[in-house]
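Quick one - inputs below.
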Amino acid sequence: MTLEFILGHLNYWLFIILMMTGFYIVVSRGNYVKKIVGLNIFQVSVFMFYISIGKVQGGTAPIFPVDLNIDPNVVYSNPLPHVLILTAIVVGVATTALGLALVVRIREEYGSIEEDDILEIEQHIQAEENSEHGSAMGGRA
Amino acid sequence: MDVLINLVLFGMMVTTALAILRMRRLFAVVMLSGVFSLLSALLFVTLDAVDVAFTEAAVGAGISTVLLLGTMALTSRKEKMPRKFSPIPLLVVVVTGAVLIYGTLDMPSFGSADSPAQTHVAAQYLERTPKDTGVPNVVTAILASYRGYDTFGETVVVFTAAVGVLILIGGFARRRDEEEEGTD
Amino acid sequence: MRHHLILRVITKLIVPPILLFALYVQFHGDYSPGGGFQAGVIFAAALILFGIVFGLRKVKRVLPPWLVIRLAAFGVLLYGGTGVVSLFVGKAFLDYSALAAYPKDGQHYGIIAVELGVGIAVATVMVAIYYAFASRPPRINDEDW
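Output:
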């Protein structure tokens, strides 16, 4: 592990640290709004990782001069990841909106957006249904 | 110099993410997520992705913050007291992170011009765009022309997500209920 | 938001430039950073800002909900329609070279048409989502913030 290797890979590791912070928010917190914020952090970290693959050292943004007089000495970064991530960001906000709409509906049905509360309510409903079926079967089930 | 700027931005982003993890007032969480998006937009600029930075600044700091605030207004303002600390999520996250970092060890180092990502189609796109389309912004040329199918699909996905949101909370269900009540 | 005088004045000043900037980003996307996705989002941001400060009723008078949904569909159809036009001229789907006498001109027209479709679709989708969220009766009072 030379210093050069570490400097060349430091960016990737930092992206992964950010990604994992988002992941930890998703799995450890019970509040649905917070879970979605965590998912957003995760998503943006993936985007940054992807874009960093297209970066060329000493390069510039892949936009030519208007008159298309391209200086062959200028290095341009890889435009392909930019295109893919550009559309992914807008799709990401649209799907986030869909998730938030689900959260709103969950709140209206259950009166809560905490995972613990909802699991409790679900268990309650399940128990009630079971006892209902049980009495319908003559108490044998 | 580049490394220094990146490190400072990273420091700020990690701090923001940790603050989001710790905070229980959702208003602060939502605002910090907007800050996080703005910082990531700055990072995109240092990575030469100006188009992406542009989009991220408008989407992340603008629209998604508004949507999160709207959801908050419709639900609740505070997170419940967190559950008792359990080691399993932390373990899962640490293991996943370790595996991912192990995976990066094989990758070409950051910014190298001879990595596989740079040597295949990228050069072709940069070379052909002025001849084929005459559009100076290569990102636009790829987005709309070379990868037109892809973008068409993405547009349809955005449209579909909107249809989904409208079906869930757009008031279509309510209108049907009212009609049913009217026929009763 | 009737009592926030500063917000109201600043919003009035700032909304028209944002809309203009969105149009610039839309139609200058070939030459500088920008394009349909960014322009659509910026356009929607201006309308949402107007809606937040001046109330949902007023912004719905500018862009009624029935029009928003139809425009979103129109944007997607404009994109697909451009592809179908090039099909009819005898080229592949979404091959814009068919749209004009010279392939380069055709590419230019095609990119502008397609980006316009994307811009309209994205802007109206964002506004539609905002309408959906903002039209629900809120659970938190204005004072509780």
